[in-house]
Design brief:
about 550 residues, mainly alpha, about 60% helix, globular, four-stranded mixed β-sheet, Zincin-like
């Protein structure tokens, strides 16, 4: 029988809500080496000479999963806690650690399941995708990942009974002397628990051991597991995934899904009303569409809220409600909010037509400042924090408001957009020099002085923040003659000019802002005072 690739095997049994993600973290070999060195000094290395029984379980697990032994190191560390963990480095090198209490608690067959479970995190690249578990959806994904790796644990042990025992024993900390393994009794315990979603369970990275046991029992009936054992039959895994998802909804995730779907619905409703009302009226056909999509009760509630308000007030309410629901969406799913909103926009466009402000000759959409603000609010700041290794948050809405505020400043002289940009670039750069290079400290920060590292962070955040605003304007054909565009470009390149002056390379600038134009004329800017003096001198002559 041909041995299957372990990564393909793991992927074939991935649970439906365990979403495959791109790896955002650069894995450093030196970090792995340092971690392995630490374990070597503080823990027992699993090998046939020192830990023969543990090594036997490890060896059997690797054989069942067809995982190369040279790519894994295992250690046992002293601890009263029952625990195991997995660390992944470059080239899929994996380190697994076990507490001594876990090893003493489990039989050899049960340990195979735990080893397979931890190795599953590596095979599915969960380790590379680790992020701060702050949002509800992050925790939901983490729980889904545990369902996946429990399956790989079963593949590693090939024995359902041992696998279920491993889950129950490692979760309870009780051995055979204190517990009788009656699966039906454990499932009855689950049936007798409250079906209302528990906030405590929602804040956990793991499902309860009862749900894990039930989910694994379901997987053991799947066509995928039957096939792995060389048997025919079994239930389609897609069908079993739906049942597992319903179990998790019933006992843990129900309120999250309710909030999530409600928020998406309300975002779509207000976006639909905004699109329908862009000509300052909602006709009968548009009203019927709204009723059909969202139901008469919900739409009528919204109409009642807007009734009697001026056109200006209606627009303010609509904008406020869209922003309110976008913020909720962002809290529920920080990394996915932008994608959800783009999908909603596409659906609304399909159902209610293109924006009436579009250029009907070339069909090119003209984006408004309000539209820019909405897009800004959907950006996933965590993505940028990781990508650019930032110390603190970027706060894109803040930099949007900076540009917006600057764009309302009155012009002192009549200048072309190009002249305005050149003068403002020079001015912003000069401001940063005054603030950051002043030996007496930054007057806007209570006299704070900046180290070189702090200066880099200071200007890096501005390049990234202003850069994303500029990209949104460029991608949506924003008017280049508008004050907002002028101040967006000048804020960005004023930051770039200062960054280059303090020694940041053009290569790094390109990394922070991937549309960087290496144009000396644009980067240098023009001293407005010199420009005025030249004009005066030319006039006098």
């Amino acid at each position: 029988m041909r041995k299957i690739d372990p990564y393909k095997l793991a992927e074939s049994v991935r649970y439906v809500d365990d979403l495959k993600k791109d790896n955002n973290i650069n894995l450093n070999s030196s970090v792995l080496e340092e971690y392995e060195s630490f374990q070597s000094h503080s823990s027992i290395y699993v090998n046939p000479d020192i830990t023969p029984s543990v090594y036997k379980s490890l060896k059997k697990c690797l054989e069942n999963l067809n995982f190369p032994e040279e790519k894994i190191s295992a250690f046992v560390y002293p601890s009263s806690e029952v625990n195991a963990s997995c660390f992944q480095g470059p080239n899929d090198k994996t380190i697994i650690t076990f507490s001594s209490s876990l090893i003493n608690l489990l039989s050899s067959d049960e340990l195979q399941f735990v080893i397979g479970h931890e190795l599953g995190h590596s095979l599915l690249h969960h380790i590379k995708n680790i992020r701060k578990k702050e949002s509800a959806i992050d925790l939901l994904y983490a729980r889904a990942a545990e369902i996946s790796v429990d399956r790989i644990g079963l593949l590693a042990s090939k024995d359902l009974n041992s696998s279920l025992k491993a889950i129950i024993k490692s979760s309870s900390g009780l051995d055979e002397n204190h517990i009788r393994f009656d699966v039906s009794a454990f499932l009855n315990q689950l049936r007798n628990t409250s079906r209302s979603s528990s906030k405590i369970l929602q804040n956990s990275t793991h499902p309860s051991f009862l749900l894990r046991a039930k989910s694994l029992l379901r997987f053991s009936m799947s066509d995928k597991f039957f096939s792995y054992l060389g048997k025919d039959g079994g239930e389609p895994i897609d069908k079993l995934d739906k049942l597992i998802k319903n179990d998790l909804k019933e006992y843990i995730d129900g309120s999250f899904y309710d909030d999530f779907e409600t928020t998406k619905t309300m975002t779509k409703l207000w976006a639909s009303i905004a699109r329908a009302a862009q000509d300052n009226r909602i006709d009968i056909d548009e009203k019927e569409k709204l009723f059909k999509i969202f139901g008469e009760d919900l739409v009528n509630k919204v109409f009642t809220m807007l009734k009697g308000s001026s056109k200006k007030k209606v627009n303010e309410i609509i904008k406020s409600k869209i922003s309110e629901n976008l913020n909720k969406l962002k809290k529920l799913d920080p990394s996915g909010a932008k994608g959800h909103f783009n999908k909603i926009k596409d659906e609304v466009t399909k159902q209610f037509g293109e924006n009436l402000n579009s250029n009907k000759e070339n069909k090119t959409k003209i984006i408004s400042i309000d539209d820019v603000e909405i897009i800004i609010n959907t950006l996933d700041e965590n993505h940028f924090l990781k990508k650019y290794d930032l110390i603190d948050t970027i706060d894109f809405p803040y930099w949007f408001n900076v540009v917006k505020q600057r764009s309302t400043m009155p012009k002192i002289t009549e200048e072309s957009p190009e002249e305005q940009i050149a003068h403002l670039i020079w001015g912003h750069c000069d401001e940063y020099k005054t603030r950051l290079n002043n030996p007496d400290g930054d007057m806007y920060n209570g006299g704070r002085t900046f180290s070189q590292k702090e200066k880099i962070e200071f200007i890096k955040v501005r390049i990234i923040g202003f850069g994303e605003i500029f990209k949104i304007l460029s991608d949506n054909n924003f008017s280049k003659d508008s004050s907002f565009y002028i101040h967006s470009v000048s804020s960005l390149y004023g930051s770039i000019k200062y960054a280059l002056g303090m020694g940041i390379s053009k290569k790094d600038i390109l990394f922070f802002f991937d549309r960087f134009e290496d144009d000396p004329k644009l980067i240098e800017g023009i001293n407005p005072f010199e420009s005025i003096l030249k004009k005066v001198s030319k006039k006098n002559n």
